[in-house]
């Protein structure tokens, strides 16, 4: 026992022979009818780097390879997954639990926008209520025989990220970044948070890495030279993919046709997760 011990084991991370409370917080249990083999959270240190589009394309790639795939949209105050997939119907519940909505190709999706009367209704909730909603998407939704679940996280390292890391059984995270110096600094914060929470980092995806001229085929670094190798080398992380600055991706998300994307950027990535 430490000399500074206040006998409050519940708030202590130390391990000693006098401990009377278990370390850590037990994970929330999935719905009894659910089965999810691998859970990957897609995170970013800030907004605007394309986290949701990366989540969508990872899920689409998984589904195309024949895996049963799901997306849990944990961005409660800024949900964009239903819009990207063109989902207009609402989720509904049975006496057994809440059922996700399927996309055109069969990806199971749960998002707060699938429960709101109007898609544009704001979610003006405090942190604990938002965290509780994310937990319910895990515990109350019936996720049937999912090989991969991708969690679209809100940006930053706040309440929801902490809730997901502590309460859901995450197999690892994919960090989405872009080439700017500012984003590189924020990625470091995400990496350090993951280390603090003992959550494995599966790799980094750099979005808006370059612009490929449709006329001459040359590549231009619109946001400057990438710092990705430096960050990846410093923390021993894999670089999973580099995505171009491509207006067709944004257009597909806006029109609800993201499942039609044809890029091969994520071919081979699933094997690394």
Which terms would index this structure?
two-stranded antiparallel sheet, 273 residues, nine-stranded mixed β-sheet, alpha/beta
| Count of all domains | 1
Distance between the termini: 40 Å
Residues in helix, %: 25-40%
Overall pLDDT: 86
Structure summary:
The protein is of the alpha/beta class and 273 residues long.
SSE order and pairing:
Layout: E1 36-43, H1 51-64, E2 69-73, H2 81-85, E3 92-93, E4 98-99, E5 101-102, E6 108-110, H3 127-139, E7 146-152, H4 159-167, E8 172-177, H5 181-196, E9 201-212, E10 219-220, H6 228-235, E11 239-244, H7 247-255
Helix pairs in contact: 3-4
Describe this structure in words.
There is one protein chain. This protein is α/β, with parallel strands linked by helices. It has one domain: P-loop containing nucleotide triphosphate hydrolases (Rossmann fold), CATH 3.40.50.300. Helices cover 27% and strands 20% of the residues. The chain has helices at residues 51-64, 81-85, 127-139, 159-167, 181-196, 228-235, 247-255; strands at 36-43, 69-73, 92-93, 98-99, 101-102, 108-110, 146-152, 172-177, 201-212, 219-220, 239-244. Strands 1, 2, 5, 6, 7, 8, 9, 10 and 11 form a 9-stranded mixed β-sheet that branches. The model is unreliable at 6-15 and 19-23 (pLDDT under 50).
């Amino acid at each position: 026992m430490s000399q500074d011990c206040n006998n409050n084991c519940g708030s202590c991370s130390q391990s000693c022979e006098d401990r009377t409370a278990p370390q850590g917080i037990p994970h929330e249990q999935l719905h009894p009818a659910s089965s999810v083999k691998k859970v990957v959270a897609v995170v970013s240190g800030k907004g605007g780097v394309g986290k949701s589009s990366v989540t969508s394309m990872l899920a689409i790639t998984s589904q195309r390879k024949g895996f049963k795939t799901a997306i849990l949209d944990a961005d409660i105050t800024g949900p964009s997954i239903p819009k990207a997939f063109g989902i207009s119907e609402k989720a509904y519940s049975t006496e057994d639990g809440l059922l996700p909505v399927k996309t055109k190709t069969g990806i199971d999706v749960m998002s707060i926008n699938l429960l709101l009367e109007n898609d544009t209704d704001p979610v003006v909730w405090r942190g604990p209520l938002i965290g509780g909603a994310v937990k319910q998407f895990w515990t109350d939704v019936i996720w049937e025989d999912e090989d991969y679940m991708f969690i679209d996280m809100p940006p930053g390292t706040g309440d929801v990220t902490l809730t997901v890391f502590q309460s859901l059984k995450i197999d690892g995270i994919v960090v989405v970044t872009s080439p700017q110096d500012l984003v590189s600094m924020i990625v470091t914060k995400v990496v350090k948070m993951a280390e603090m929470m003992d959550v494995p980092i599966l790799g980094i995806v750099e979005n808006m890495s370059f612009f490929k001229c449709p006329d001459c085929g040359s590549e231009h670094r619109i946001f400057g030279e990438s710092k990705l190798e430096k960050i990846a080398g410093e923390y021993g992380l894999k670089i999973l993919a580099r995505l171009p600055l491509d207006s067709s991706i944004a257009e597909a998300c806006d029109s609800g046709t993201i499942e039609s994307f044809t890029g091969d950027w994520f071919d081979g990535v699933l094997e690394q997760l």
